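User: Let's play a game. I give you a shape written as tokens, and you guess the letters that built it. Ready? Here's round one.
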């Protein structure tokens, strides 16, 4: 006789909190629709995770190979926009809030070239592109470190 085991969402979260890494993997595989990892920075570690989180089709982002730096930058900027959208909770930036948006800021050194320096912010206005801006300043550094090739190619830093 086959029985169905019912597990309350709160009990699953408690089990996940105390489980070792193998137990966490098991719970995630048994309950793929349950969101055990509450923070986007814990859930999204790869570009595949970005696609999964946003529901975007990876085939739509499979750009043809080219040597044209402008096309490469444009293609990677499209990916960067998807990453920003993902880390902003899959919400478009709201220009009417007066909230700050945070952007990666690079500096150039003759010894090492372009490098990520810090995140800066602007209040939303017509002089700052809100779609590129992160709502959480911590997400700027996380994404630059997690997706360095996309960041560098999007901003033509390499």
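Assistant: Ready! My guess for every position:
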């Amino acid at each position: 006789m086959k029985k169905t085991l019912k597990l309350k969402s709160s009990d699953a979260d408690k089990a996940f909190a105390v489980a070792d890494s193998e137990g966490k993997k098991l719970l995630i595989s048994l309950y793929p629709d349950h969101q055990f990892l509450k923070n986007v920075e814990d859930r999204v570690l790869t570009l595949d995770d970005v696609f999964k989180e946003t529901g975007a089709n990876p085939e739509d982002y499979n750009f043809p190979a080219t040597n044209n730096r402008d096309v490469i930058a444009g293609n990677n900027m499209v990916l960067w926009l998807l990453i920003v959208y993902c880390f902003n909770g899959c919400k478009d930036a709201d220009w009417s809030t007066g909230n700050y948006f945070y952007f990666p800021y690079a500096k150039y050194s003759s010894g090492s070239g372009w490098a990520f320096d810090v995140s800066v912010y602007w209040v939303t206005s017509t002089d700052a592109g809100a779609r590129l801006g992160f709502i959480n300043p911590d997400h700027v550094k996380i994404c630059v470190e997690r997706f360095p090739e996309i960041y560098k190619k999007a901003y033509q830093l390499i």
